[in-house]
Amino acid sequence: MKTYDLRSDTITKPTDAMRKAMAAAEVGDDVYFEDPSINKLQEMAAELTGKEAALFVSSGSMGNLISIFLHAGQGREVLCHRDSHIIHHELSSGSALAGAALIGLEGGRGKLNPGALSSAVRPDRYDNCRSGMVELENTINGVYYRRVELKAVSDFAVAAGLPVHMDGARLFNAALASGMTVSEIAAHADSVSFCLSKGLGAPVGSCLCGSKEFIKEARRIRKMLGGGMRQAGILAAAGIYALENNVERLADDHAAASRIAEALSGCSWAELEPADVETNIIFFNTVGRSAGQVVESLAEKGVLGSSDGASTIRLVTSLAVGGGDIDDICSIIEGEA
């Protein structure tokens, strides 16, 4: 039986062409700034995001943590959405290691808005923890920020004197779905990170982008966190290949997610609105059965998903499934009793 893995876009594996690029990579000691492949990747990342400089880091979590260190730090608050990755999936590293308090705010479909931010900014009193930065995630749970929404958040932050960090783990998905360029989106943030290891298909790594001074300090924090790089150009080469070859194909993942959502909408045991699926992530509620029961039943037929609570399921499309796979997945879903 063939298995179709929709648990996450993190399960993608390097293609043969990416592996060849990794094997042929020029390398050097990055601590001495001498790894040509890392240098090239960082230059590409800075240019794509419209920032002055970039730093190759081991993960999106590390990129976010470094940004919290530098923008907020000890005794300050990070204003973010209550569903954000930095709250739920990074072991409170912003608090445990950077010393910042993570303040989760409400907002429709995971997105921040000036009203929620305004109510959370602290008065300037000696006994108050100061607001240190705004953090937004794009996409968040597969939903992207519209241009007007990004501008509203960034305009508020500028007026409040707060830097903005964008967790752009799936930044390129957001760009394709919104019709904006990556640099247009990133212009609304002081720093931005994006993952190479999700839909872009690289095995590991993220890029953190910002001003030259920010990245200079970010390198110091990366070292403090144990992230000094040596001959990591082998990994950077995968990132270069991903940026050169795997960006436009993300549209295929979006189209596949839409097709699966349509199939689910016709099932009595699934509740969702297909139009709510904006990129490559599908969330739906189960009806009459628990999420665990549905996940287990689909897995027995070869479709792997993940439960996100008692009655919510998440499916994610990626390089790992494509072409005729989507027809098969939809058939299995439609045949599920």
UniProtKB/TrEMBL annotation:
Residues 5-284 form the Aromatic amino acid beta-eliminating lyase/threonine aldolase domain. Coiled coil: none annotated. GO terms for cellular component: cytosol. Pfam families: Beta_elim_lyase. Belongs to the threonine aldolase family. Keywords: Lyase, Pyridoxal phosphate. InterPro entries: ArAA_b-elim_lyase/Thr_aldolase, Low_specificity_L-TA-like, PyrdxlP-dep_Trfase, PyrdxlP-dep_Trfase_major, PyrdxlP-dep_Trfase_small. One of its GO terms (biological process) is L-threonine catabolic process. The modification N6-(pyridoxal phosphate)lysine is found at residue 198. It comes from Candidatus Thalassospirochaeta sargassi. One of its GO terms (molecular function) is L-allo-threonine aldolase activity. Its cofactor is pyridoxal 5'-phosphate. This is Low specificity L-threonine aldolase.
